[in-house]
Structures are given as C-alpha cells and as structure tokens.
Amino acid sequence: MKASKFSDAHKAFILKQGSDRVAVAEICRMAEISQATYLNWKKKCDGLLPTEMCRLKQLEEENGKLKKLVADLSLDKKMLQDVIRRKL
Known about the structure:
The model has no long low-confidence stretch (mean pLDDT 89). This protein has one domain. Helix 1 (8-19) packs across helix 3 (35-45) and helix 1 packs across helix 4. It contains four helices and no strands. Helix content is 78%, strand content 0%. It is mainly alpha-helical.
C-alpha cells in the first residue's frame, strides 16, 4: 500500500481543526485531501494523540502478521489431519 504523505502529527492537526468548528470542505481544501479521506481519518483516529496513532498503526501491523500466522498454522493442521486420515 502507498505510504501516506501525512505524518501522524499532521493528521492530528487536521482533525483538531475539525473539532474547532471549521467547515470540513475548507479543511480538506487547505490540506489538499478529499472529504472521504478526512472522514476515514476521523472515524479511525479522532481524539488520538500522534503517539497513540503510531501505536495503533504498530498494533494493526502486528495483528495482520498474527492473523497470517494463524491462517498458515490452520492450513498446516488441516493438511496433517488429511494425511492421518489417509493412513488409517
């Protein structure tokens, strides 16, 4: 996936402007982002500090790796069970 050109601190600043009663269209125009991007950021990161955003990103990456590991192990288990069934 393409890396964002916005840092976590910049995202937090943009979201803070939204809580200061600035129009969403104006915020998006100044930041050069779409309203959909702004709303996705708001849904995911509203109220988080930049350090918390970084930690959230790390946890999501770790969760993805763990899910892949579980899927691989489940597949291995199924294959081994099929081998055992064939031998019996």
